[in-house]
Amino acid sequence: MAEIYKGVFEDDKGNRYYAASDTEITYDTAGIPLNNGGDLSEASVNFTVSSSRKALTAKARFKALMGDIAKWLTDLGPAAFYKVADDFTTTAENYLFTARKGKQLKDEVDNLNQNLGGVKIIPEGSGAATKYYAQLGADAASKKLLGSALFGEITLPAGANVAVSYELGFRPSKLCIMSNSDTYSSSVVWRYEATRGFTEQYSYNSFDGALYIKNKWLTITDTGFTITLSGSLHKGEQARYFALR
Fold it and tell me: What secondary structure does DSSP assign to 31-80, as a single string?
């Protein structure tokens, strides 16, 4: 309940003077003025959310205060209720990154960019056919293909005159394959360099001794290489290779 008092004053000559604004006193349900110890706990108020955020001021009307508070709460985004993680490992939802960790991450990225010296990596293609290029900034003339190296182990064909293909995902520019076998004290090495245009085979066994043969057993393909053994040596044996794109 509220009562509004008009500020009216009269002098000894009967002249009336009116205050610039009215005085409003609001009471609680027990009739005690709210500005003098009244209880507001059971009071209700109609208010409109303020149009802009602003600081709360003393002696403001209750409904105005509620409108200002509602504006602050309405403008809060989801991040206001997130927790804070001060690490690089948290993956749970509703967590924020600390500024300290952000600065640490920025320093590491800056250091990486400095080490790269302005060079950016450009992927082209997809899957196993993807190629990677290095380019200095926007200078297209500096774009160069990056090499890829693979090291692995294969099992040689289990029988003679059976071609077996081995996939690298690219046509090698250089390739070296080595196999050693206790059978007949035998060893074989294949070598290929694209600039030379042919494959080479170096082998040794206790029957034939040392042999050097061109373009035999090993064939280079667009996605790797093929091996065809012509005899019984090294069938089903393990071999190791090193390949450059």
Answer: S-BGGGT---TT--------SS-----TT--HHHHHHHHHHHHHH--GGG
Say if residues 188 and 179 touch (Cβ distance below 8 Å): yes
11 pLDDT more than 80:
no
pLDDT at 242: 94
Cβ atoms of residues 117 and 137 within 8 Å = no
Q: Are 227 and 160 in contact (CB under 8 A)?
A: no
Q: Report the predicted TM-score, pTM, of the whole model to 2 decimal places.
A: 0.44
With cut-offs at 50, 70 and 90, classify the pLDDT of residue 1: very low
The rounded mean pLDDT for the chain is: 83
At 164 the three-state DSSP class reads strand
The edge-to-edge listing of strands for the beta sheet with 238-244 is 149-155, 238-244, 174-181, 186-193, 198-205, 209-214
H or E element that contains 167: strand 163-167
Q: In the predicted model, is pLDDT for residue 154 greater than 90?
A: yes
Q: Say which residues have a Cβ less than 8 Å from residue 15's Cβ, sequence separation at least 6.
A: none
**39: closest CA among 51, 31, 50?**
31
Check if the beta carbon of residue 66 is closer than 8 Å to that of residue 45: yes
- The residue type of 97 is F
State pLDDT tens for residues 12-35.
777 766 555 555 667 777 878 777
